[in-house]
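Protein modeling request. Please complete all fields; requests missing the sequence field cannot be processed.
Requester role: graduate student
Desired output: 3D structure, token encoding
Chains: 1
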Amino acid sequence: MEQVGWLPRASESCRWIIIIWRTTSGVFQREPRLVAHPQRHRLMVRSVAVMQTKRSATYGPILIAVLLWLFSGSEIYQRATIELNGTIVSSTTTCMQPWNNRCATEYLVKAHDGSQQSYVAGPTDKSLPRRLSVGTVVVKRRWALSYSLNGRQVADFPIFFYSGLLILGGGCVIWWLLLRKRQ
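Delivered output (183 residues):
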């Protein structure tokens, strides 16, 4: 798989996920100390067995939960805070070079009262579409995830996906609490 834009190769991203997972959620066991006293050998074997069964606190699940909540919460919040009401009078699309990826479209929207507003639609789910033609009437109310184009209601935000990520983050918190309770 070839590297495209700023995205790493698939094997590199998997390697980073594994490294992060191991460093944040690994169970760290104490290293047994070797003692050169033969009369305490039995006691030492028992204490090493006890040390190897104790688990230290793991913060991987709570870290994953926070990352999931931040990611999904920010996408939902940023989509909900968009407010547009007017007609598109101009649009300019720019892409990152040299691969022409991650395009963003800047719209100039003229409201019914004559005021003009600039809106930039980026390459994520939080943005409205990037290929709206000039003359399109856009109505997007604040705190709504859907919008209307020329009077037709559009609900294209993947709310089930982001809700699933929020629920998965809640599951990670429950997992973390169970791990802490077991200690």
